[in-house]
Amino acid sequence: MIKVGIVGGTGYTGVELLRILAQHPKVKLKVITSRQEAGMAVDELFPSLRKKITLKFSDPSKADLNKCDLVFFATPNGVAMQQARSLFDAGVKIIDLSADFRIKDVAEWEKWYGMSHACPELVAEAIYGLPEVNRASIKNAKLIANPGCYPTAVQLGFLPLIEAKIVDMNQLIADTKSGVSGAGRKAEVHTLFPEAADNFKSYAVPGHRHLPEIKQGLSNIARKQIGLTFVPHLTPMIRGIHATLYATLTKQIDLQTLYADRYANEPFVDVLPAGSHPETRSVRGSNFCRIAVHRPQGGNIAVILSVTDNLVKGAAGQAVQNMNIMFGLPETLGIEHVPLLP
Amino acid sequence: MIKVGIVGGTGYTGVELLRILAQHPKVKLKVITSRQEAGMAVDELFPSLRKKITLKFSDPSKADLNKCDLVFFATPNGVAMQQARSLFDAGVKIIDLSADFRIKDVAEWEKWYGMSHACPELVAEAIYGLPEVNRASIKNAKLIANPGCYPTAVQLGFLPLIEAKIVDMNQLIADTKSGVSGAGRKAEVHTLFPEAADNFKSYAVPGHRHLPEIKQGLSNIARKQIGLTFVPHLTPMIRGIHATLYATLTKQIDLQTLYADRYANEPFVDVLPAGSHPETRSVRGSNFCRIAVHRPQGGNIAVILSVTDNLVKGAAGQAVQNMNIMFGLPETLGIEHVPLLP
Amino acid sequence: MIKVGIVGGTGYTGVELLRILAQHPKVKLKVITSRQEAGMAVDELFPSLRKKITLKFSDPSKADLNKCDLVFFATPNGVAMQQARSLFDAGVKIIDLSADFRIKDVAEWEKWYGMSHACPELVAEAIYGLPEVNRASIKNAKLIANPGCYPTAVQLGFLPLIEAKIVDMNQLIADTKSGVSGAGRKAEVHTLFPEAADNFKSYAVPGHRHLPEIKQGLSNIARKQIGLTFVPHLTPMIRGIHATLYATLTKQIDLQTLYADRYANEPFVDVLPAGSHPETRSVRGSNFCRIAVHRPQGGNIAVILSVTDNLVKGAAGQAVQNMNIMFGLPETLGIEHVPLLP
Amino acid sequence: MIKVGIVGGTGYTGVELLRILAQHPKVKLKVITSRQEAGMAVDELFPSLRKKITLKFSDPSKADLNKCDLVFFATPNGVAMQQARSLFDAGVKIIDLSADFRIKDVAEWEKWYGMSHACPELVAEAIYGLPEVNRASIKNAKLIANPGCYPTAVQLGFLPLIEAKIVDMNQLIADTKSGVSGAGRKAEVHTLFPEAADNFKSYAVPGHRHLPEIKQGLSNIARKQIGLTFVPHLTPMIRGIHATLYATLTKQIDLQTLYADRYANEPFVDVLPAGSHPETRSVRGSNFCRIAVHRPQGGNIAVILSVTDNLVKGAAGQAVQNMNIMFGLPETLGIEHVPLLP
Fold first, then answer.
1. Which SUPFAM superfamilies match (chains A, B, C, D) (predicted)?
2. DSSP label of A191
3. Rg of chain B over CA atoms, in angstroms?
4. Quick one: C261 and C162 in the same domain?
5. Which of B143, B148, C115, C317 has the fewest CB within 10 Å, making it most exposed?
């Protein structure tokens, strides 16, 4: 059994991680910390976990995380970078679900996240935890930078096109739509039900923090700097990301075959039959990314549709997938949930 | 492995049954029928089941259900009563998720359901599948009448009060609220998104089909005819039932202890701490019924709050719970899903 | 033209008041204050008001409200009682949409609202602004205590039964459901979209602040203390209140006629045909209260269904209705909006 | 007073037209037809219209539409083309909210709509009712082809770029999102609440009927054939369209000024301040189209955000705007509703 600790389990990625780990056959959840809720039973904050988890939130200053085999950070940005060093040195493996170790260019990270990086030397050590790209490196990683929700859906969608070098890499467009849980469990006016329900809007069109992460990932694959227009939108649903991706084809090849082949052995990437339109609910509560490919009217624009559950494949599920890989377990263990539909 | 057949798997209880059975370690799904979708792959109709279920819908006239150990009917009312006899005679166990065998008084059933009963002689054989009441009989049942969604939430809520004989049994009130999936996957105007979203209404106040079912169940426990006012409402959510129950206390006893004791050994009934307000999402996708008890301002009105997922404990999950009992499996096997929150 | 000021226009009752007043032919909106947003254009906070309202929020300390003919308070509880005295003395009419002047028993108010009343002597002067009960007094009122959202729907629903003295007044039950805008435009976790969407729950079952207000109103009509069990619920919709009311009949009279007659001349109370089920969306954005009456199975329980838009008839619309009465205008002027459906 | 008839008033554009016309000071609604609901009171089908409209639906075969000054067709595609000829010849003005007269190329229309055109000779007579483009022609029109919902939002969004000839007209992209009312009030499974709620998906990516309409409109302005990729999505909200438009700039000019100038005198097009993100709810129930313009990271991709209420500016409101123009009334008369927020 893997002895697991969680730092900061009161947000949506935290509760989702708890949901998954509570059912994982090889995990023993040892400790979960929260500054604010220390002493409270986890299932008092999240009644969905009653009869499933009996732990209480621990005071971070008293929690002995060093005895864990693995610690997940489900914290706001800026926390993991403060605490990773000592765990890393103690040989505890780390999976950071926040953005602290995702961007290799520290100056770039500091620009987008508006703070100094507290632990730049570990950034180089961190492995970007997108298994479909980095599986081999993840196997031996000590520190995983778990990808963001948008970056997962967008990168998996563009990946085959970039690898095959068949699109204009200067003019990629990602029009993305997220459920409101992507904004986190923070008391804010703009995500109140009466503000976000029965409403649709874009946000951060001038620049969103996931832009440099996606560009880094796709540029690594392209082996040159790619150009991306990234427009996120807030959708009145709880979970789910739908990425609608546009690229100008420079060669004519069979896109359906390209995608089917690329992902044939990926347990969590599902290429739909030609002509399909994936729905976010078809992955709700599951670790799947479902993708469909189109070339409307047979023109030179490829339209790729990619859906994930932002809290699973876009956060907690992918983190557990990384854990499975790091600890030599079957990659799908404990994350084989069938999506909840309707 | 239990060889299982499903008749009519294209509705919401059908797809939920498939979600649960696809993950059940002791079930081998052999056949699923649908007159309308015969020949179509199950995962084409329900993409959430891709990579999970590879069966196709079979033509009912060609499906060999007699080779199954157990057949679930997830059909509209009026179908199971046509087909149950031959399966019953062939020694195939039956769990009927429709209403065909729930009401012992056949004339009463015919009045509420507006048709002649095709198989009245099997009504007497049928065991009402509410394990918290009938566990012993379910164990040896050949034919289970699986309870309706409202009746499950309402009966589990009232049960301890009735058993303890501490309320006026002539003046029970059940004000119930259901998610829209309770209306089924039928093309109808009144459950279209633009009709049902951002809207709340009652329906069937003069009389709803679940009224005789609830009255029968509670009267059996009370050993006399109870009086119930039952008002259902349609709520703009997908899943979930919230029953708000009112009863006039005739004796003063500690309700919290009464409920905690009654359900102490029930794996799926969760009595919340005093002062709680259960949320439907705290049971979403799970087989739990969560209950809280109140006596506002210390008066003589008991207010019982009972929530379930109408498709799980109110339908498919309870059906599998019954299956587990019938086949000598651990009662919770394959239905231990942690609720999906948020 | 009536010179109107608004104190505190940044909440949901505030923006609704602005929507209505912007279209009212006899109102000149002079000033709107907000401590927090002083200096900001109203239509920057609420883009729905672009091209409709050009005012900026004023600093409360600098706003000259004394030049107004009428001031609306759309503030949290506890603000109006601080400022009403000086306006009252200056001859400015006041309509308070908060709870400060609703409860005649100041000690009772202080118990439920958890603060000392700053202006108890004006409580006696305040007229409770439910036109269907107090129209004559409203005409000459200087200070209106505008009713709460639940109290409006519940009182209008019970009113004819109480006036006719045909129910057991000790055992009234009000099972009420509110849209989330009823919780206000405050940054709080429990009303975030991912918490409140696809979810249903009760709250404040042990006691809600609207309970004493409703009991006061109904007891005044009954001329004796009534007994009420009041259970509010939070519903995943933006606007709307649905009150399901239960009363035990002590006399057999034709309820449909009773209600139709009682409200025959009320412009905003609509008694639906026998057998109806009012929907909250049928009043969305309008000042209507629609009511249906039932006696399920011809028993002795009357079930009254009453729906309003909590922000209109339950707040801003009723406030403008009171304004119209106070200023001798046609009662329906400027609040004749047709409900928005779908 | 304009004597108005409506053919087919039982869908969402019909009820919205009724909502608007019921409050229009210069309209006398004479007749409304429905084959299916003939004889039923309009307010029985739509209780939101109680106390507002007392008409009954008339049998189409008995309705005397020739006495009207104006007839609106709020019918499914294929109906208006059957009945327009005789009304046209009788001198009755016609506004068709369906697609029958929108496409000048009849063969193209027949391809996309899958039927033969019953009245091709009137297609040439029809004026495309987008006032911001065709105001002068609308003034004297006898037959208006009222634009579709997507085409209105997309054309108003692209218009200034096309007119200014500053973008690559072969590579336009329109990623559009619609509320579910856009699918109409038809009993279908895929728009049921449990299917469409908490879910997001694209549809008709290979080709949607509004594509030729948008291409025709933009090509007319460009005076050459434009190239457009058009991807519609279904969003879990009732009303609203959000168009996210992408174009490659070929010249560097100040987009904000371009848009502000182009729409300075348009009463219903609102160009938001630089940096804005329009919300669909900011136009809910109103005839506004709100637009924001962006150039992310100062690159060569223009991102235009355009929102409308699909039932108002995208259907019934625009139809009444056209009526006002045709009958010499102030263009905004009766369609000045303030959006309903929240």
1. Glyceraldehyde-3-phosphate dehydrogenase-like, C-terminal domain (SSF55347), NAD(P)-binding Rossmann-fold domains (SSF51735)
2. T
3. 19
4. yes
5. C115
Q: Is B145 inside any structural domain?
A: no
Q: Are D319 and D146 in contact (CB under 8 A)?
A: yes
pLDDT tens track, chain D, 342 positions: 999 999 998 999 999 999 999 999 999 999 999 999 999 999 999 999 999 999 999 999 888 899 999 999 999 999 999 999 999 999 999 999 999 999 999 999 999 999 999 999 999 999 999 999 999 999 999 999 999 999 999 999 999 999 999 999 999 999 999 999 999 999 999 999 999 999 999 999 999 999 999 999 999 999 999 999 999 999 999 999 999 999 999 999 999 999 999 999 999 999 999 999 999 999 999 999 999 999 999 999 999 999 999 999 999 999 999 999 999 999 999 999 999 999
CA distance D213 to D150: 9
CA-CA distances (angstroms) from residue C111 to A161, B294, B297, C145, C212?
A: 67, 21, 14, 18, 10
Between CA D143 and CA D127 the distance in angstroms is 6
Q: What is the CATH number of the domain that holds B260?
A: 3.30.360.10
Of B23, B282, B285, the CB nearest to A285: B285
One domain, residues A157 and A51:
no
Measured over the CA atoms of residue C47, residue C51, residue C52 and residue C56, the dihedral's sign is positive
Q: What is the DSSP letter of A337?
A: P
Is B63 a residue whose pLDDT tops 90?
A: no
Helix %, strand %, coil % of chain A (to 5):
35, 20, 45
Which pLDDT tens digit goes with each residue over B301-330? 999 999 999 999 999 999 999 999 999 999
Which pLDDT belongs to residue D63? 87
The Cα A80–Cα A94 span in angstroms is 9
Contacts of residue C336 in chain D, CB cutoff 8 Å? 23
Task: Tell me D339's DSSP state.
Answer: P
Whole-angstrom distance, CA of residue B240 vs CA of residue B282: 9
Q: DSSP letters of B153-173? A: HHHHHHHHHHHTT-B-TTSEE
Contact status of A195 with chain C (Cβ, < 8 Å): yes
Quote the number of domains for chain C: 2
Q: Do A175 and A254 belong to one domain?
A: yes
Q: What ipTM is given for this predicted complex?
A: 0.97
> How far is B203 from chain C, CA to nearest CA, in Å?
6
CATH of the domain at C28: 3.40.50.720
> Is B320 within 8 Å of B17 (Cβ atoms)?
yes
Q: Which helix (H) or strand (E) holds D302?
A: strand D301-308
Pairing of strands B241-248, B172-178: antiparallel
Domain endpoint, select from A125, A159, A178: A125
Q: Measure the CA angle with vertex D132, ends D127 and D133; round to 5°.
A: 50
Torsion sign (Cα): B255, B261, B265, B271: positive
Phi, psi of C136 (to 5 degrees): -65, -40
The upper half-sphere exposure of residue C288, i.e. CA atoms within 13 Å in the direction of its Cβ, equals 26
Task: Report, as residue numbers or ranges, the catalytic residues of D.
Answer: 149
Chain B closest CA to D186's CA: distance in Å? 6
Contact B185 D198 (CB under 8 A): no
Query: The domain containing residue C174 runs over which residues?
Result: 150-310
Q: Is A327 contained in some domain?
A: no
C·D CB contacts under 8 A: 93
Q: Are residues A160 and A287 in the same domain?
A: yes
C172, C302: one domain: yes
C215 part of contact set with chain D, CB < 8 Å: no
Work out whether strand B57-58 and strand A301-308 pair parallel, antiparallel, or are unpaired.
unpaired
pLDDT of D83-121, one tens digit each?
Answer: 999 999 999 999 999 999 999 999 999 999 999 999 999
A119 has catalytic annotation: no
* Domain co-membership, D220 together with D154: yes
pLDDT digits (tens, 9 = 90+) for A78-87: 999 999 999 9
Residues of chain A whose pLDDT is less than 50?
Answer: none
Question: Are residues B263 and B160 both part of a single domain?
Answer: yes
